[in-house]
Amino acid sequence: MENQNLLEKFQRYVDAENKIEAKDWMPDGYRKTLIRQMAQHAHSEVVGMLPEGNWISRAPSLRRKAILISKVQDEAGHGLYLYSACETLGVDRSTLIDELLCGKAKYSSIFNYPTLSWADIGAIGWLVDGAAIVNQVSLQRTSYGPYSRAMVRICKEESFHQRQGYEIMIALAKNGNAAQKKMAQEAFNRWWWPALMMFGPSDANSPNSAQNMAWKIKRHSNDELRQKFVDMTVPQAEYVGLTIPDKDLKWNEETGHYAFGEIDWTEFNEVVKGNGPCNKQRLQTRNAAHEKGTWVREAAMAYAQKQSERQKVSAA
Amino acid sequence: MNKEIYNKYIIRLADDALILGQRLSEWCGHGPILEEDIALANISLDYIGQATNLFKQASVADELGRDEDALALARMESEYNNALLLELPNGDYAFTIARQYYYTSFYLLFLERLKQSSDSFLAGFAEKSIKEVRYHVQHAGDWMLRMGDGTEESHTRIQEALHQLWPYLGELFEMDDVERATVEEGYGVDRSLLLDEWKMKLSDLLSEATLTLPESAWHHTGGRHGRHTEQMGFLLAEMQFLQRAYPGAKW
Ligand SMILES: [Fe+2]
Ligand SMILES: [Fe+2]
Description:
The structure holds two protein chains of two kinds. Chain A has helices at residues 4-15, 28-47, 49-53, 62-87, 93-101, 118-139, 145-174, 178-197, 209-214, 222-240, 265-275, 279-292, 294-315, and strands at 250-252, 257-259. By secondary structure, chain A is an all-alpha fold. Chain A has a two-stranded antiparallel ribbon with strand order 1-2. The N and C termini of chain A lie far apart (52 Å). The mean pLDDT of chain A is 96. In chain B, 49% of the residues are buried. Classes of the chains: A mainly alpha, B mainly alpha. Chains A and B meet through helix 3, helix 4, helix 7, helix 12 and helix 13 of A and helix 2, helix 3, helix 6, helix 7 and helix 11 of B. The complex binds fe (ii) ion (2 copies).
C-alpha cells in the first residue's frame, strides 16, 4: 500500500501545476502509465518512419525528396528524445525496443495503414502529423517534466511536418491535373477515418482517462482533442477542394463545432489487435532492420571496449 | 569557355551526388541503430542538396530548357554520367560504409582542388560542400575503425566489402576528353593527380583499422559515358516513376 500522505502530497503538487521530475517520488501507477505512454509514443515515431520512408526513393522532385528525407529523419530524432525521456524513469532503450519487436508493446495504429500513392505522403503530413500536433500541444502541459519538455521540442518540428503535407495536398488537389486530384481525393478518403481514430476510444470507453486526467498526464479528453482536430481540418479540406468522406459531417451553429459521423470502432479494434493492413509488415521490417544491425552494434561495442582498455593501459 | 563541355562536367558531378544520395536515403528506417538512420539521412540530404544546386546550374544552359527536376528525374539511363561505384546497391552496412569511406575520402580531395576552380560557381560549390563532406569522411572513417577493429564478423565483412568495391574505384580517377578540357580551361580538376594522396590516406586508415588494401590494378568503367551496371535501371525505374507516369505534372 502506498503511503496515503505521499499520494496526497503528490496530488497537491500536481494540482498546483508543478512538474514532476525523474528523481521525485511518484505513485507506481503514474510511473507505469508514463513509461507505457512514452514508450508507445517513441515506438510510433520509429515505426512511423516506414510508411513515409516508402516514398523517399520515388519522391517526384528534388525538393520533395529533400523535404521528405528531413521529415522522416526528424521522426527518428523524436524517437530518440522519447526513448531518453523513458530512460529517466529507469527503463533502458534496448528493453523497450525488444518489447516493440516481439509485439508486446503497442505503437500508433495509424502506421499500420499503407501508403499507396504520393498523395498519401501529403495526407500523412497534413492529417497524421496534424492530429499528432493537436495531441502533442496538449501534452506540452503534461505533468511529467521530461515528457513535457520533449513535447515542446517535438512540436516545433511537427508544424513543419504538417505544413509540408498540406503543401503537397495543395499541389495535388487544388493546383494539380485531373489525375493528381483523383489521387489526392483517394488518399484523403483512406486517411480521414484512421486519422480520427488516432485520438483513441471515445471518452465513454476510455477506462484509464479519469486517473490520467487527475494526475495531469493527460490534459484533454480523447473526444475533445478529436473535435478540435475536425474543426481545424474541415476548412483546410474545403480550401483545397477535397470532399470529406463522411455524409454526417456538418457545421453545427449551436455548438460552434462540426458534427461528424460515428467512427468504425470494429475497424479500430481490429487494427489495435494486429489485424490492420500492415501490422505484420511493419513489425517484420523493424525486426529485419534490427537483426541485420546486430553485428554492427556488436562491432561498435567491441571496439569501444578495446579502446577503453587501451586507454587504461596507456594511463597505467 | 565551351558551354557544352561545362554542362557535361556539371552533369557528371550532379549525377554522382544524386545517385549516392538516392542510395543512402534507402537506409532511412532500416539502419542498424536509430542514430545511424539519422546520420545517413543527414548525409543523403547533403548529396540531394548538392545535386539540386548542380542541376540548377546545368539547367541554365541546357539546350532543351529542362529544369533541375527534368534533368535529375527524367533522362534516359544512357544519359546519366555518374560513377558506377555510386549506383551499386547498398549491400550490408559494411558495404555501404566501405563505399562511403572510399568515395568521400576521394571526394574531399577532389573538392579541395575544385575550390581553386576559375569558375566562381564551381569554386563556391566546392567550398560549401567541403564542410559537409568532411563530416561524411569522419562518419565513415569512425565506422571503418569500429568494423575493422571490432569483432571477427565485422572485420570479415568490412574487408570483404573493401575487396568487392575496389574494382569500381579506378573510375573516379579517370581522365577523358571532357575532363581534360575542363582542366585546360582552368575550372576542372585533374583527377589522376589525386590518386597517390588518396591511397596514402586510405592505407593509413586501413592499417589503423587492421584492414588491408586490395591490390588489383584493373577497374570497371563506363558510367561517365552512360554505360551502367544492371542495377541502374531498377534505381531509375523507382526514382523516375512519378515523373514518367505523369509527364509534365507539377508536384
Ligand atoms: Fe514526430
Ligand atoms: Fe511528424
